[in-house]
Design brief:
heterotrimer; A alpha/beta; B mainly alpha; C mainly alpha; A: alpha/beta; six-stranded mixed beta sheet; 11 helices; globular; B: 11 helices; 75% helix
């Protein structure tokens, strides 16, 4: 569905993505793991059209999208749920969700969009409760739910999730990952970028590891979870395991 | 006139000019919220509103209402043209550069207006006559009622636009977080274009409705706009409710100051208030409002 | 804006010294070749504007903020000198110094609070301030002479030498201009200057290094105001007549245009901008109607297409081409 071929992205003089290739098949969850500054968010911004690549190609369902504007990318039904929520804080929960469907209003019936609104509110009942509240007054976990809900409102074929677990308590992370699984069941394809490699690999079908702008490992998520390098670098030593060794 | 009647007169006059300040302040806010820049061309939006009205109505004899909307449309197009042209094309996007581009454009347009209409003041007839109306001993003209009415109309329209239409909400969203807005598929460029067009329209309306009272010329807009800007800062820069409050309060303070303290320094009051606000309470009376942009 | 620092001293130390020598020679030699009184007057106005513009350029280059109020500081220098020497008979030279001090203090009161605010508030504050000052100039007519102006200001003199004609004032004004350029270049290349560059590069970083950014910015603002005051005093004693018309909002825009056209942050660029635009303004004086539109158009066009200004813009263009040809040579 998405084919990224040898792209190179620069921030001014900084070469952020180096000859990067990856692909995503329909209805997969693909995880992209790597440490801070490795280029994960840059890749998402490149796909979303915010920082276009200097060279290389990105094809979505056969269509070349590497140099079109961010608005057109969204109209192709590629929706990014950005890192750090990036909500419209002074606007209400409802307004934020509405804006998620911004492009759909010219073309689809209001009814369709409201159906999705109900769907999101079922997925995240807390949003229904707080729908008239300003987005900035929500807790961290609720804000993440709103951010994902806003993304869902765009009716994406491909959803790009940038570190949805960042800064959230483990219980909430579990809830959110359950939602991500449900989205896959409802036929959304997902590219999941995460620092929390364990949670990401548990839920993903396939995964890529990115380091300083390059893909260093790729394969099925199950396989990667057992990979020694991945374990050392991203999964952390299990404390009990260490004790057993001693 | 007794003392209280005088005060009432000053207050009413103040509210009238205050309404214009409020409109101008709203114009400044809209562009500032969308782009972070202070748009000095607002001065010319106000001036040209009156001048185009004069051209269409007095020179070309087009009926009043039509002239009104034609003028507004002309300035809306001008605003859009400015954004689409110099602002969009500018090689540097640094805010201070864009602000200065607006200063340059303001001079260019003003210079053109001077060449087109000459330096003299031109009169514009009131919208519905000159019969003085007496309220509790103070005198107001029908034009004053037009000013209040139209200003209220504009305010209601803006409230509806920003809170009940999708595009309005999209504009607010863009003001708050540009990146997230483009991730929603909102074209930031289009929002900026729209902000310039709206600002033009509102400024023009302000210029048109006050022109019959003050007459108009190629540079009447400058003082009006700069004071309107002070009103925006007074109320809270970027805050639309603040713009209205700031405008009205500034108008009344200026009128009372001119009447009770000194009329020679009338024009200085607005700027004195500007400096005092900047130094002691830069967030203004009602704070910055939705946009965290400063 | 961060890249602007490359352009602060685009010329090496050696080149700078060379330019200074040429400049000094120019001051000495030009009067030998030029005899026309009108040309001298124009050059003198260029000199005065240069002083103002050099100061303003320091402000813009070091703080990234622009002042729309320098007409007020220029005017304060002129009126303070005029009033104290003519009405009260103070000696002119100490008065110039006094005017500079007073103007500097006022600038501090206006500048320090404005610069502390995040965002471009200096523009607004100086605009408001300058309008207020202009109104005072017009309305306090008992002291200032009002709109009809203030005549009868004495010429400056040193001992028996009275600076009463264009030639003598040429030497006077341009010597001061030279000194101001020296001070500017010194500042740009000094430890203080580098600290200020650091501020503009990253205010947060500068703060962590213990540099009090607000104080520094205010000091630069005050310095720029003092330069303007000096120029104003010199103007008053030269022309012997001043009126509020010369110190209005339009003048503030003119000097800022000069800085921008020359290149924000470039000392020599500022001088170039002052020269070019003053001469242009004189040429256009014939058709005063066109003055406004032409200034506006120049400002707009330069900013849209050459935001680094003309000196700096052409210089960097020249440098890029040089690099390009170097690369091409390497490739062969």
């Amino acid at each position: 569905m998405l084919n990224i071929d040898l792209i190179n992205t620069y921030y001014g003089q900084i070469h952020a993505l180096k000859d990067l290739s990856l692909h995503i098949e329909k209805e997969e969850i693909v995880a992209l793991i790597g440490s801070n500054g490795a280029g994960k968010s840059t890749l998402l911004n490149t796909i979303s059209g915010i920082t276009p690549p200097r060279t290389g190609s990105i094809r979505f369902n056969g269509v070349e999208i590497s140099r079109i504007s961010p608005e057109k990318i969204v109209s192709q039904r590629i929706v990014q749920v950005p890192e750090g929520r990036q909500l419209f804080s002074p606007l209400t929960v409802l307004e934020n969700l509405e804006l998620g469907a911004f492009l759909r209003f010219s073309g689809e019936s209001r009814k369709n969009i409201e159906k999705d609104l109900h769907y999101v509110m079922e997925l995240f009942p807390i949003l229904k409760e707080r729908r008239e509240q300003k987005a900035g007054t929500l807790s961290g976990g609720e804000q993440q739910m709103l951010s994902i809900g806003r993304g869902i409102m765009g009716r994406p074929m491909l959803m790009l999730l940038d570190e949805p677990s960042l800064g959230l308590a483990p219980l909430i992370v579990t809830e959110i990952f359950n939602v991500i699984r449900k989205l896959q069941e409802d036929k959304t394809t997902i590219l999941l970028v995460e620092q929390n490699a364990k949670a990401a690999l548990r839920i993903a079908d396939r995964a890529y590891v990115i380091e300083t702008g390059r893909i260093t490992l790729k394969g099925e998520a199950k396989v990667l979870m057992e990979n020694e390098e991945v374990k050392k670098a991203y999964l952390g030593k299990d404390y009990r395991e260490k004790r057993r060794q001693i | 006139m007794g003392f209280y009647e005088q005060i009432l007169q000053f207050v009413l006059t103040g509210l009238t000019i205050g309404a214009i300040y409020a409109l101008v302040a709203l114009g400044f806010n809209i562009i500032h919220n969308a782009t972070g820049i202070v748009n000095f061309v607002q001065c010319e939006f106000v001036t040209l509103g009156g001048m185009m009205m004069y051209t269409y109505y007095s020179l070309l004899g087009i009926p009043l209402i039509l002239s009104f909307f034609l003028s507004m449309t002309t300035i809306i197009l001008l605003g859009a043209l400015i954004e689409r042209g110099p602002i969009r094309v500018a090689r540097s996007k640094a805010i201070i550069v864009l602000v200065f581009i607006t200063i340059g454009l303001s001079s260019t347009i003003r210079g053109t207006a001077l060449l087109a209409w000459g330096p003299d003041n031109v009169p514009l007839p009131s919208f519905s006559g000159e019969n003085v109306i007496r309220i509790l001993g103070a005198a107001i003209l029908p034009q004053h009622l037009w000013i209040f009415g139209i200003t209220i109309g504009v305010v209601i329209f803006l409230q509806y636009f920003f809170h009940r239409t999708l595009i309005g909400k999209a504009m607010r969203a863009t003001a708050v977080n540009r990146k997230a807005a483009s991730l929603m598929g909102i074209s930031v460029n289009r929002m900026v274009l729209l902000s310039f067009a709206m600002s033009g329209g509102i400024g023009a309306v302000g210029g048109m409705i006050i022109a019959p009272i003050t007459t108009t010329s190629y540079d009447t807009g400058i003082m009006l706009a700069l004071k309107g800007f002070s009103a925006a800062i007074l109320g809270g820069y970027g805050n639309n409710a603040g713009a209205i409050a700031g405008g009205l309060i500034l108008g009344v303070l200026e009128s009372l100051g001119a009447g009770l303290i000194s009329s020679k320094f009338k024009n200085a009051f607005a700027f004195l208030i500007l400096l005092l606000v900047l130094f002691f309470k830069p967030t203004g009376l009602l704070g910055y409002g939705e946009s965290e942009r400063v | 804006m961060r890249n602007r620092f490359k352009f602060m001293a685009p010329f090496t130390q050696k080149k700078e010294t060379l330019f200074l020598i040429i400049f000094a020679l120019g001051i000495v030699l030009i009067p030998l070749f030029v005899k026309n009184k009108y040309y001298f007057m124009v050059m003198n106005i260029v000199g005065l504007n240069t002083i103002v513009v050099i100061g303003l350029n320091l402000l813009i280059g070091f703080t990234g903020q622009i002042s729309l109020g320098h007409a007020a500081f220029y005017g304060m220098g002129a009126y303070l000198s005029a009033i104290f020497t003519t009405t009260y008979g103070f000696p002119p030279w100490p008065t110039i110094a006094l005017a500079m001090i007073i103007t500097g203090m006022v600038a501090y009161f206006v500048g320090y609070p404005s610069l502390k605010l995040k965002g471009h508030y200096l523009v607004m504050a100086t605009l408001g301030f300058s309008i207020i000052v202009h109104i005072f100039m017009v309305e306090l007519d008992q002291i200032t002479g009002g709109p009809s102006g203030f005549p009868g200001i004495p010429h400056l003199s040193i001992g028996k030498l009275v600076f009463h004609d264009d030639l003598k004032n040429f030497y006077l004004i341009w010597t001061f201009a030279f000194l101001c350029i020296l001070v500017s270049l010194n500042l740009v290349n000094s430890r203080v200057g580098r600290a200020l560059k650091a501020i503009h590069g990253s205010e947060v970083a500068a703060n962590t290094l213990g540099i009090d950014t607000d104080k520094y910015k205010a000091k630069v603002f005050v310095l720029s105001a003092i330069f303007a005051s000096l120029a104003g005093s010199l103007y008053a004693h030269y022309i012997t007549f001043i009126s509020p018309r010369s110190f209005d909002f339009y003048y503030s825009i003119q000097v800022v245009t000069m800085v921008i056209v020359g290149g924000m942050g470039s000392v020599w660029g500022a001088f170039f901008g002052a020269g070019l635009l003053t001469v242009l303004s004189e040429i256009l004086h014939v058709t005063e109607k066109f003055n406004i539109i032409i200034y506006g158009a120049i400002l707009t066009l330069v900013l849209v297409f050459l935001p680094e200004g003309m000196v700096v813009g052409f210089y960097s263009f020249y440098r890029r081409r040089k690099v390009k040809t170097l690369i091409e040579k390497e490739g062969n």
